[in-house]
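Please check this one:

***
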Amino acid sequence: MARNDSWSVLGVAGSVAAYTHGDASLDALRTRLSSQRDLLADLLASELPHARMRPPEATYLAWIDLRSYGHDDPAALALERQRVKVAAGHGYHPGLPGHVLLNIATSPERLTEIVRRLAAAVRA
């Protein structure tokens, strides 16, 4: 059986570079994700006002509660009705219907389109 508990020269070089020169990149990522979280909150308020979302912390995945729209699997509806793919919440928390997991690590334009289509799917 092969072992995978050793280091590699490339892994070490990448780690050293990230720790030595990665602050600006990390700051830019944090700013971008914060902006995307704010945009998502605004989009939900306007497009899906009955949706609930706890602001994501240290992640680019948003857990959105859409139970007030009366569908057990809003992710399936979004795919079927609007051709937009979001992750079904029950895949991450079995027995909890009506939730989706949305990746906000995309462009503002794409995030806007995803929420617009998700709203159209659950309101139809």
Notes: The first helix runs from residue 9 to 21. Residues 49 and 117 are 14 Å apart (CA to CA). The helical segments are 9-21, 23-47, 74-82, 108-123. Strands lie at 52-53, 61-65, 87-88, 99-103.
